[in-house]
Design a protein that fits this description.
Blueprint: H1 6-18, H2 24-28, H3 31-43, H4 45-48, H5 82-90, H6 106-116, H7 127-144
């Protein structure tokens, strides 16, 4: 099992995020956002809703109501909490203040899926890179809404 160096990850996210510009318009043009939207619909919409308002078809049977993901920026003084959102989606490390976790630990789910794939040698065979890319694509999509 590979552990995630949180400081290295936060630095990587910050550097990558800075290349996307300061507003959602810059992020919306990205292929990562488009792929992230597809991943969102496949993995998140059942609970958070297709429009990310926290009203997905499974939301009524959950103990904890899913977050309205459209309000992330507003709830954080107008700034999208990129690192926190990444950490919550990944889920492999506890996030202070997040409370109990009903949400799947997508870091583990994506890691298991990546390990089942045969990555080409030029990719380096590092499934953790693939996991981080998938999570970042979700984060970029959420940043864009």
């Amino acid at each position: 099992m590979q552990t995630v160096n949180l400081k290295h990850l936060m630095l990587t996210i910050t550097v990558i995020a800075s290349t996307y510009g300061s507003g959602p318009a810059a992020a919306q043009d990205s292929i990562d956002v488009q792929v992230g939207r597809l991943a969102y619909v496949e993995n998140c919409a059942a609970c958070h809703g297709v429009d990310a308002a926290g009203d997905g078809p499974l939301s009524s049977v959950l103990t904890t109501k899913p977050a309205n993901l459209k309000e992330l920026r507003e709830a954080n003084d107008g700034r999208f909490p990129l690192v926190q959102v990444y950490s919550v989606i990944d889920g492999r490390e506890a996030v202070r203040g997040h409370g109990t976790r009903e949400m799947p630990v997508w870091g583990w789910v994506f890691s298991q899926e990546a390990q089942k794939r045969h990555l080409p040698p030029h990719y380096g065979g590092d499934s953790e890179d693939l996991v981080q890319s998938r999570i970042l694509q979700l984060v970029y999509y959420l940043h864009s809404i």
